[in-house]
Amino acid sequence: MNSYPKCDIDFVREHGNAWLWTGERVLITGATGFIGSWLAQVFDHQCELTLSRDFVDGEYDTIFHFAPTPIEPVIECAQLCKAQVIYTSSGAVYGGVPQQVNEDAPIIPKTEYGREKARSEALLAKSGLDYRILRIFATAGPGMRDYFAITAFVNAVKAGKPMEIYGTGKTVRSYLYIADLLVWMLRIIGFGRPGAYNVGSEIPITIEELAERVGDYVHGHPIKHVQRYFVEPAPYYLPDCGRAHEIGLHQHFDLDYCIKRMIE
User: What is the mean pLDDT of residues 158-170?
Assistant: First the structure.
């Protein structure tokens, strides 16, 4: 498992009130993934922790379901042991919306990924469980897989290669640093009510601007526009996080800090 910056782990523990989990029986599915591996380090030596790539039956107080597997076994187990369920959904459940989107927007997924997330959300909503759904938009940080734009740009800089932009580069995204995401997650569990919460940055940036920001960290780095067949992603992907703001949550780390951590 990757070892993540201690100062960021300590930040999450302090601001996410991780001490409240002392002695709790916790299952993290998808524990080898980006979010799961970070949370595992936050909870290390904090609680009775079970880590798994997929679901593992057992007695738990809280189940974090990050794995890309069906949610039905998680719900059945949680109902038996009266566990709380934390499910990572996605902004993809809204489909392509050309503006900031809040949690009350229609659920109209346009992809199979979004449809599966929406299906799991619906099952949780009628399960009778204590649950939280985190509709995660773009996040980033050390340990992130390399098939996302920001990671591809960082890896290109590290390798001394041009950063490649496919399509127009005008698609709009935003990036929430992983430490912020985990603080939000833990505080939504502690202070939020059952239901769905958008989790992400509300500061927009185009993919082209993102490449320039990554390049600026090393005092300029070449950008290459690649002209080939490319399915342009949703042009606008930006959350309205008003529900999270209601319980005092705000972005702490800026994009430059995120880029610095990923490059170092």
Answer: 90
